What we know:
By secondary structure, the protein is mainly beta. The longest helix is centred in the middle third of the chain and has 7 residues, at 361-367.
Amino acid sequence: MGFSLTGCTNDDYDFDQIDATMGFGSGELEIPASSTMNIPLSDILELEEGGSVKIAANGDYLFQLTGSDASSASPMISPIVLRGNSYSNTLTLNANSAAKGTRAAGTHLSFVSPKKLMFKYNGTDAAVKSLKSAEVDGEIELTVNLALNGLSSAIATIDKATINLPGYLQISRVEGKGNGAPEFNGSKITVENVSTSRNLQLTIYAKKLDFANQDAYGKVVIDNNGSINMDGYFDLGIEANITGVPTSALSIGANVTVNDITLKSATGIFDPEINISSLGDVAVTGVPDFLSEDGVRADLDNPQIILSIKNDMDAAAKVSAKVISTKNGQNLATVQLPEMNIYKTTVAPVTKICICRHKTAELTAQYGVANVYEVSNLATLINQHIPDHVQITDVETKADLSQEMTIEFGRNYNVVPSYEIYAPLAFAEDAVIEYADDFDGWNDDLDDLELSEGTYVRLTADAQNLVPATLIVEATPLGLEGTDISNLIEVNVKKGTVKASADGATAVNSPLEIELREKEKGGLQKLDGLSYKVKGKASHDGTTVTGINLNSEKHTLKLENIKVKLVGKVIGNFN
């Protein structure tokens, strides 16, 4: 007859080794002690291939989920075009323009024309909040043609001609046609020693508008309702000595033309629409048995959501959202995420955000202090029950109006989010996992064996535990069909608590003792094995171990001095 106990041990225990004559009478029968090797968690906690729980390169267990079907945004700000204007008129220099009200030879003439409109823009775009500067597509080209023959009878040479333009116009160069040498300072152009015998022709170029320099010649007004009003004016001034007697009224024929101005890009404050409705849904699949039993509570120490946002705008933004976990279509938990910063592309093309339960030094070193957001109730998403879906929804994304930004008008930008859920299997204080298995196949050795009244089987061992959790053993007797026969056999776990390793590196010893007794005579003959359950708990009997990642290889359990004793009388045919 043979009776074997297998599973965690490396030995079989066979009653054929015992002399049949020793089976009668009173006393104890003991099978020699044995031990197991170090049993790593990888031999105990089985994972499903392709499941959501994985083993990292360093051996740590972790949840690793990747979101899918996230919506992206393509913000765009419509182009702004300033329609040019053509101005042609004859400017008459009346008597009041001459010093002392005369036009006599030898007097000095100072003349300033009224301001004239060069261009104007009226539009509406709620995305434009303020403009600091703008680059134009191509160049602003302003042509000035002054016919001076109406002055030549009284003035041979203009000492200085001045053209005032809007202060925000950053002139890059001025080209003349040889009548005087034009110079510019800011938006003011002067030409000295201009002959009145021929026209004064100038072409003025600019590539940039600096709206910090607004003045009486040009302003930009942006209202709260999104209306944008921009204008540009010019005037003409001359200084000259009258050297002859005018034969008619002094006049200048003025022709000024400005091309259409298209703003290519601008720096300022903008609020483009960033429509990201959802970051998608992730299915939680292949959850192993030790995390899906009814008594499990997956209170994880520091689960994390790693949110990556690719942003090609030179504009910062902010994002907030809700995370919802569901099981069988029912909500388990909803967690509101805080408002989080998205960097402009010139700072970081991809913003990596870590949302966690605890803001640790390790996480801040990895992601940067400003990119780690602590959400104290994050673990509730997978706390009481492991969900089958997690989604990030109710996403609100908007530009950061506290920061200046530079945008290209008419360009479709891209804001593309993605995320991963990364949850190391490190316990918080309320965590409970369960591992269940069976020992069976004993009946062939026990069907002829009967215990007399008061006789019992005692299993003892010493457990060396490197697992950072208290292990609590429960056992149930099984019959031939795997049925519970607790009505026939009593299983008494007298010592079933294996103390936790406080650091996952130092083993802790704990004794184990289990007794099996017949409740009904002949019950032992129907015993085929034991169904056992091991609960791993972060907190038990005043001891709490938290924050240590479960490791598939480093965390082991070893059983030493495994003994099986029959205490009392054994009745049966052993031959």
